[in-house]
Amino acid sequence: MKHFFSLCLIILSLQQFECQNTKDVYDKALALKAEFKYKEALPYFQALMKVDSNNIDFLSHGSQVYTRFGYLYMKTETEKQNYFQRGEYLAKKAISKDEKNAEAHYAYALALGRINENASSKQKIANAKLIRKEVDRAIELNPKQAGAYHILGRWHATIAGFNAVEKAMINTFFGGVPPGGSYDDAIKCFQTAISLEPKNMIHQYELANTYYAMGNKANAKTWLDKAMALPVISDDDKIVAEKCKDLKKKLD
Fold first, then answer.
1. Residues near 233 by beta carbon (within 8 Å), at least 6 away in sequence
2. Does 70 or 117 have the greater pLDDT score?
3. Which of 69, 117, 135, 187 might form a disulfide with 109, Cβ 3.0–4.6 angstroms?
4. Residues of 29-62 as b/e, b for ≥16 C-beta within 10 angstroms?
5. What is the tens place of the pLDDT at every residue in 130-187?
6. CA 76: distance to chain centroid?
7. Closest CA to 150 of 114, 115, 189, 101
8. What is the pLDDT of residue 220?
9. How far is residue 59's CA from residue 190's CA, in Å, rounded to a whole number?
10. Could you give the dihedral angle defined by the CA atoms of residues 176, 179, 184 and 187, in that order, rounded to the nearest 10 degrees?
11. CA dihedral sign, ordered 20, 36, 119, 133
């Protein structure tokens, strides 16, 4: 796979200078990303960042693609973390170049969220404030960023799901977390994400999963049915569809 990406990088770099301009390559990369074709989009962003490693748009969107690629296609946890950490690095670099770039803050929160999924309780708690800070900033800069509301919803649900020991650690070692962290807040965020991206299955699934965590099986079934009624198009959808099947078994 590394050889494949290297070949793509060389080809795209040559195309950029001989057949296309940077804007054409960037537009193609964005189009692939918008279609959730991260495997195809990554070589384009790699080529773009090779040409201009300080471009804010290349860095912020490239970061998101690295993080999503790692989640979808890497098999081992070590491989996944390598991509997540690359995504984190690129997002932080983008923010250092332009603190007012919403996509960069979203990208940073996205990478941190993935890093946190298999982190220790201590690391999860340490990163909780930073994730909240970054996602809040992303929403402040772009109130229509559905992905940011999704991450914020997961943030609230995660904090709400902390056990007594983890909550004690938050208060003792980290001075508490920012206000929020309730299932009700999570529901509001997922509902907002759905209103912005009604055809993105992951939002409906997470809303259903939140209702399930609250013990509200009726609403969980309602939203799970809506999620499962959506077409499975991308590789991301395939993973969510499997999660939907698992949740359905719990609800039956």
1. 36
2. 70
3. 135
4. beebbeebebbbbbbbbbbbbeeeeebbbbbbbb
5. 999 999 999 999 999 999 999 999 999 988 888 778 777 777 766 776 667 899 999 9
6. 19
7. 189
8. 98
9. 27
10. -100
11. positive
- At 35, phi and psi to the nearest 5? -90, 10
Nearest to 128 by CA among 180, 88, 190, 85: 180
Q: Is the pLDDT of residue 192 over 50?
A: yes
- Report which residue type is found at 141: L
Q: What is the pTM of this model?
A: 0.89
- How much is the mean pLDDT over the chain? 90
| Predicted pLDDT of residue 217 | 97
Query: Other C-beta atoms within 10 Å of 98: how many?
Result: 14
Taken in order 20, 98, 189, 89, is the CA torsion positive or negative?
positive
For helices 56-73 and 102-116, angle between their N-to-C axes, nearest 10 degrees: 20
**CA 87 from centre of chain:** 10
Q: Give the pLDDT score at 178.
A: 63
Asked whether 241 and 201 are in contact (CB, 8 A), the reply is yes
Tokens of 41: 């989009």
Average pLDDT of span 63-83:
96
Token pair listed for 155 = 């943030």
Tell me the longest C-alpha to C-alpha distance in the chain: 61
